[in-house]
Amino acid sequence: TQLLEQSPQFLSIQEGENLTVYCNSSSVFSSLQWYRQEPGEGPVLLVTVVTGGEVKKLKRLTFQFGDARKDSSLHITAAQPGDTGLYLCAGALNGGSQGNLIFGKGTKLSVKP
Amino acid sequence: NAGVTQTPKFQVLKTGQSMTLQCAQDMNHEYMSWYRQDPGMGLRLIHYSVGAGITDQGEVPNGYNVSRSTTEDFPLRLLSAAPSQTSVYFCASSYGSGGGYEQYFGPGTRLTVT
Questions:
Q1: pLDDT tens-digit readout, A68-103
Q2: Is any Cβ of chain A less than 8 angstroms from the Cβ of B104?
């Protein structure tokens, strides 16, 4: 079974702090996606990274794809309570199909005012 | 554009009962999938479809059936509910490889089997 490991599993921080969430695998991915899920709702796509070394920014969120396309990170600057949620990464295996999209177990982020 | 819709939002079943979870999308996506989400287990793929008339098994298909007669609809059938099927079920659609398999999720169905 292919695995996508996310760390940390839980993160509780104060408003204004910075944080980084990691997504690691031994497999090579053709693309990697990050989702945010709020309680009682479905995950919502934040970003897709495709090229090794790629960096994408979404306001205070910075996403990076590893050079070897096996890992990714999500960095949040000056976290806000509205950033609270479950962050999921998902990788599409190289040459794979819909059935080869692998999700990590998620990082549950709580940002306290 | 409603996106991906799922019904019902909540459901309680007794062991052995059957039911169908409905899913529809209005984005003309070829790919549709069913996932279950359990604490500590993340999202696991149950079944998926790459187009009308074509379905395939995912990681955890046992106890579930699917069919895809139209592009828009992808119902999930529980044949004989078991307590182990207590979970939150998400339907998702995507453009497939052309869109990097980016998933558009529905709001979910919370199922409890007693």
A1: 999 999 999 999 999 999 999 999 886 666 667 889
A2: yes
